[in-house]
Write a structure and sequence with these properties.
β4, α6 and β5 form a beta-alpha-beta unit. About 40% of the residues lie in helices and about 10% in strands. By secondary structure, it is of the alpha/beta class. It has two domains: about 325 residues, TIM Barrel (Alpha-Beta Barrel); about 130 residues, 3-Layer(aba) Sandwich (Rossmann fold). About 0% of the residues have low confidence. The chain is built from 18 helices and 14 strands. A six-stranded parallel sheet has the order 2-3-4-5-6-7. Strands 9-14-13-12-10-11 form a six-stranded mixed sheet, sandwiched between helices. Strands 1-8 form a two-stranded parallel sheet.
Length: about 475
């Protein structure tokens, strides 16, 4: 096996791993030219861990999903210090969004992270979307575009690369690509007017990376998911939109593509389509080397041009070089601390009706707080804890599926719901609770149900709060409002 070819194949692979220290196999791979690593909450991300990685390969692209809101890897235990994209879109203050992006970038700079897999540039056109929802700035393309740009400017202004995702747009889907292949049923004209503007804007703003979505978009390619489609990755993204930065896949073990091909074949097809970096959310030494061998074999048999592989590796190195040249920006960002910006944003995002005030410890009933596959299962949803800090003896009960409500006594009742707009059983549960306790308070942390006669739910509460996001600061903002 050619050493140069092997190293090129290593450069384009960006695996995740188990454990809180870099395992021996990963260290060996880094020494052999592994181009990147993706970190998750399970790794207990710390500067020490990143130093271990960089000791073997200083130019490694160290990536992480730190969106703010529900998707956090650094703040899973306490909950994010930032309210998330939907909340920022509700406030619609691009300066505030840029400030939030800058502070997220500063936090990542402190850990010596190269690349933030954020922001979500998806236009959440379908309220039934199971995986984007509050991760999107909203349902309006122009709003999403301007906040995507602000977020990118913020993160990259702190010397950390941003990544707009999930191209060509995951907002109009009813399937979670972690579980199956979603299809976007939209014409080219609708895609051009609705889904692509945020990506065009991000490219014009100089975003360093874009992540592909594992999406079937028949109007663009009726046969292959976007990640594996040269029509989407090269002709559209590179050619029509003019993106020349690093294009990375969403994790290739996601069922949307993993159900179709082996990991090695996914990697080869994605590279041939125009992708530069292959994200493997979790792999092993054997798994990594099998993919390397498959890429090398594809070059040798002519199914993957060596020039294409070399181009991909070059773009990975270019991102690494960009990061290396931004050390001064990162130092400046470390001195520009604004730890209160997330809470200010969360407070500004609250939408409220009613006047209820809690003067004693309530019963908090959480309805449907199980979140989607993009969210780490340990993430804190928060309102009960935030209220308990203000009102000791606050009690929490969780309902993760349809069932009997707990017995209500004379305590105030706070019903915390997520995405009432998506789930009839959640709206029915709210209606039953309101029938028993018309004075209860409803707090919706997701996309609220519209206030019409068909929803019977959250919006009919006497006091209703929408946080438009799940985070520590969103919970704190709601708790403060209730105990004002």
């Amino acid at each position: 096996m050619s050493g140069d070819l092997y190293r090129l194949a290593m450069t384009v692979l960006h695996p995740g791993f188990d454990g809180t220290s870099a395992p021996d196999w990963l260290r060996r791979a880094l020494g052999e030219g592994l181009g990147g690593v993706v970190l998750f909450a399970r790794n207990a991300v710390s500067p020490r861990l990143v130093r271990q990685i960089r000791a073997e390969h200083p130019g490694t692209v160290v990536a992480i999903d730190e969106e703010g809101g529900a998707v956090t890897r650094l703040e899973v235990v306490a909950g994010s210090s930032f309210p998330g994209n939907r909340a920022l879109g509700v406030v619609d203050d691009v300066d505030l969004t840029e400030q939030v992006g800058r502070q997220i970038g500063r936090m990542l700079a402190d850990a010596d992270i190269t690349l933030d897999y954020a922001p979500s540039a998806d236009v959440n056109a379908n309220p039934a979307n199971p995986v984007i929802g509050v991760r999107s700035f909203g349902p309006d393309p122009e709003l999403v575009a301007r906040h995507t740009v602000a977020y990118v400017k913020g993160v990259q202004g702190a010397g950390v690369a941003a990544c707009a995702k999930h191209f060509p747009g995951h907002g109009d889907t009813v399937t979670d690509s972690h579980l199956a292949l979603p299809t976007v049923h939209a014409s080219r004209e609708v895609l051009a007017g609705r889904d692509l503007p945020p990506f065009r804007a991000a490219i014009a703003a100089g975003v360093r990376s874009i992540m592909s979505g594992h999406l079937l978009v028949p109007a663009l390619d009726p046969a292959m998911p976007a990640t594996l489609s040269r029509t989407v990755m090269t002709e559209l993204l590179r050619g029509e939109l003019g993106f020349d930065g690093m294009l990375v896949t969403d994790a290739i073990e996601m069922r949307a593509v993993a159900a179709m091909f082996s990991p090695g074949e996914i990697a080869v097809r994605a590279l041939a389509a125009g992708v530069d970096a292959i994200c493997l959310g979790l792999t092993t030494e054997d798994g990594l080397r099998e993919i390397v061998a498959t890429i090398v074999a594809a070059v040798r048999d002519g199914s993957l041009p060596e020039e294409r592989l070399a181009e991909a590796a070059g773009r990975v190195r270019a991102l690494s070089d960009w990061h290396a040249g931004r050390a001064e920006l990162r130092e400046r960002a470390r001195a520009d601390i604004d730890e209160g910006v997330g809470l200010r944003a969360a407070r500004a995002a609250l939408t409220t009706t009613g006047t209820a005030v809690l003067d004693r410890a309530p019963l908090v009933v959480e309805v449907n707080t199980r979140l989607n596959q993009a969210v780490d299962p340990g993430v804190v949803t928060g309102l009960a804890a935030a209220l308990a800090a203000l009102l000791p003896n606050t009690e929490r009960v969780r309902m993760e599926r349809e069932g009997e409500l707990p017995a209500f006594d004379d305590r105030p009742v706070v019903l915390v719901v997520h995405d009432a707009a998506r789930h009839a059983w959640v709206r029915d549960t709210v209606a039953k609770a309101l029938a028993a306790r018309p004075d209860l308070i409803v707090v919706d942390t997701g996309i609220p149900a519209p206030p019409d006669g068909d929803t019977q739910g959250a919006a009919h509460s006497v006091t209703h709060i929408a946080t438009h996001g799940i985070s520590r600061v969103s919970a704190q903002a709601a708790a403060e409002w209730l105990v004002r």
